[in-house]
Design brief:
single chain; alpha+beta; Uridine Diphospho-n-acetylenolpyruvylglucosamine Reductase, domain 2; Uridine Diphospho-n-acetylenolpyruvylglucosamine Reductase, domain 3; Uridine Diphospho-n-acetylenolpyruvylglucosamine Reductase, domain 1; five-stranded antiparallel sheet; four-stranded mixed sheet; 8 helices; 20 strands; globular; binds uridine-diphosphate-2(N-acetylglucosaminyl) butyric acid
Length: about 350
């Protein structure tokens, strides 16, 4: 039985804590409920928006359509051999709860992605990643409902066309599918990845010489907690912009003019630290009205309590423009903007 609420505040459904209203709102607990709402004649001509953890969206105004909130739950081991285990998680599971489940069971691969806000389903959508590991490294396959045919389809790792914070679901298949489950390939004999400098330092501080996946998870939690604001306390959606990818010649131009530029080599050029670019433009820790750039991580925009989505959007545009003016580099948002 579908339960539809009218004129519902979305304040508790987006990690920026923005108080915008949805004309209609429903939370789905099964694929049957999802199909029922998509088939409902009353909503056939009404715009629909899917919402998971709400950790990657900036809502700048009321939404006049129907919000479909993902509440699909469940985690199960579907296959196991001597080396690997395949674990299927429903897309509405909280990502960090899934990570904790893996650590408790000794399943390795996701520990570096501890404490990333959001739901399991958002993971492949934008190929989440942190501290040297990305979703694509542990992803086996997913199931998604085709919104046109209402049939479930499977996507392999290659089908998802993962890139840096990119997938087929943000590009050519945008708005065509609803991810229902994600199947992960995890290691039963984990070797930890501590290549990221900050993890090594944190493990030293914790006096850990031979880290377990639990140790790595604890280290990542400590690092994130020390510099990324907790959305439950201060509204934010993690990195607001992506780190821009530039060519070798563009990097050389920048390095010449700004010898301290922070950049990492990639397969075909460099990735620039957007946090550094933003800090150099004087934004770090700056408060503008009810929002600002965070004092410990310039790439994170925060809501000090009463900001509107429009205010945060204006701040983002001003930051984007100043980075362009100073460095001739374009930074693009990582969050989805509803404007
Ligand atoms: N930096 C500054 N000033 C700042 C912030 C960063 O100079 O205010 C420079 C520093 O040199 C620092 C470097 O930028 O060493 C990199 O910063 P950090 O390690 O915090 O990582 P990031 O590149 O800013 C990315 C992801 C994060 C992820 C971390 C760790 C993106 C857009 N962000 O941030 O992901 O947690 O690496 O792997 O790729 C997210 O996507 O929402 C997110 C938080």
């Amino acid at each position: 039985m579908l339960h539809i609420e009218q004129n519902k505040s979305l304040k508790n459904y987006n990690t920026f804590g923005l108080d915008v209203n949805a004309a209609h709102f429903t939370s789905i607990h099964s694929i049957g409920e999802l199909i029922a709402v998509l088939k409902d004649d009353y909503f056939s001509d009404i715009q629909k928006m899917f919402l998971g953890g709400g950790s990657n969206v900036l809502l700048t105004k009321d939404f006049h359509g129907l919000i479909i909130h993902n509440n699909l739950k469940g985690i199960e081991v579907v296959e196991r051999d001597s080396d690997f285990v395949f674990v299927k998680a429903a897309s509405g599971e909280v990502w960090h709860d899934f990570v904790l489940y893996c650590i408790e069971n000794g399943f390795g691969g996701v520990e570096n992605m501890s404490l990333i806000p959001g739901s399991v389903g958002a993971g492949p959508m934008q190929n989440i990643g942190a501290y040297g590991v990305e979703m694509k490294d542990v992803f086996h396959e997913l199931e998604a409902l085709n919104l046109a045919t209402l049939e479930i389809e499977k996507f392999s790792n290659a089908d998802c066309k993962f890139g840096y914070r990119e997938s087929v679901f943000k590009n050519e298949k945008k708005n065509q599918y609803f991810i229902t489950t994600v199947n992960f390939r995890l290691s039963l004999h984990p070797t930890v990845n501590t290549t990221y400098g900050a993890i090594q330092q944190q493990l030293q501080t914790m006096n850990v010489e031979h880290p377990s996946i639990k140790n790595v998870s604890d280290a990542v939690i400590a690092i994130r907690s020390s510099k990324l604001p907790n959305p439950a306390v201060l509204g934010n959606s993690g990195s607001f912009f992506k780190n821009p990818e530039i060519s070798v010649s563009e990097y050389e131009r920048l390095k010449n003019e700004f010898p301290n530029v922070v950049a990492y080599p990639t397969n075909n050029g460099y990735k620039l630290a957007a946090g550094w670019l933003i800090e150099q433009c004087g934004w770090k820790g700056k408060v503008v009205g009810n929002c600002g750039s965070h004092k410990d991580q310039a790439l994170v925009l925060v809501n000090y309590g009463n900001a509107s989505g429009g205010e945060i959007y204006q701040l983002a545009l001003a930051i984007q423009q100043s980075v362009l003016d100073k460095f001739m580099v374009e930074i693009t948002p990582e969050v989805n903007i509803y404007a």
